[in-house]
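Each letter names a residue; the fold follows as tokens. Both lines appear below:
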Amino acid sequence: MKLGYNTNGFGYHRLEDAIAIIAETGFQAVALTLDVHHLNPFTASAAEVSEVARLLHRHKLDCVIETGARFLLDPRRKHRPTLIDDEPDTRIHFMYRAAEIASDLGASVLSYWSGARPEQGSHPDDELFKRLAFQVGKVEELCKRHGLQAALEPEPGMLVEKMADYDRLAGLLGYQPGLTLDVGHLECVESQPVNGHLSKYAQVLYNVQLDDMLPGRHRHLFFGEGSVDFAAVFAALRQIGYEGPACVELSEASRTAVETARKAMQFLNHTLNGQP
């Protein structure tokens, strides 16, 4: 696997500096969260995208494009609109731009999620899952055209929250769409061990996010502050032969970004290789 770090944990850094620090720290990949301050997909020029591509190449970093920016699309409503809202056009436009940028950067994966249920109205889940299946099919097609793997992330509080929700979606699609699995999210919402889910969905697992978490509490914690069994997690990833990105996601750690990234690499080296 390619250990990486998410730029949403460098919220107070320029993107070029964050990329350099992530590489210097020893990570092999960067999960680039497109955001208002990090390669804004609606304002970034072709020259800016090309410069980021050069930086990634210079630092020999693989890239995942993350689409979970909180207020990029609506400055007053976090994560809105979603793919399942009544008016999802802005989100769909964002996905198209994200795929274009991912292709230009040489990224391997485009990670996204379903979104939470609409704020207004009383839409039954049957209708919302049908909406989502339609949009996921389009995202999968879009990514294939750009040579990318689309990776849907189950997330607490969203329509696709648990793996049972993912299975319901897959039933409507007639196939299993690509997956991003956040080990902290699995610890938060699932009753079965995290490693079991990694093994079960190995064939469609394209992206992994690393953070600690506690059952029932959706807050990304540093390693050792929650209850995730990381030895079991990495043993499962080794067993399935996972070779994709596995990126640390600690979006609340931007105030201590450099120190946190270094500590994260130390933990990962120790857990994976027994290094001090």
User: Anything to note?
Assistant: The first helix runs from residue 15 to 24. The beta strands are 2-6, 29-33, 62-66, 109-112, 149-152, 179-182, 205-210, 212-214, 217-221, 245-248. The chain is about 40% helix and 15% strand. The CA atoms of residues 187 and 193 lie 7 Å apart.
